[in-house]
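Exercise 3.2. Students should predict the tertiary structure of the chain below and write it as structure tokens, then compare their answer with the key that follows.

Predict this chain's 3D structure.
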Amino acid sequence: MGKNLYIGNLAEAVTETDLKSNFEQAGSVVSVNIIKDRYTGLSRGFGFIEMGTEEEAKEAIKRFDNGELLGNAIKVNEAKTKPNSSNRRPGGLRNGGGGRGGGPKPRRGWRF
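Answer key:
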């Protein structure tokens, strides 16, 4: 299994092809994903690359962290894993739930 890298401070013009061709200098690139805004489709300035091996990932970090790509000094480091969604509190909200569906709602005319 490969090793995922976080790539930050990407210029808006950087494409997945640009990233792949640059990072292939450090080893095999399994996948490239630039994160885009869901409404505008524009780059959010960061993405992820999966390198073929741990050694290739370390080489990519050493080679490209603080390097320049299309005028921006990019940040390259190991991607952090997503927290397990089963650790979330019920209700889907970070403050412990509440919100919709929390029981009967008062009707007009009721007094407390």
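Discussion points: The first strand starts at residue 3 and ends at 8. The chain is about 15% helix and 30% strand.
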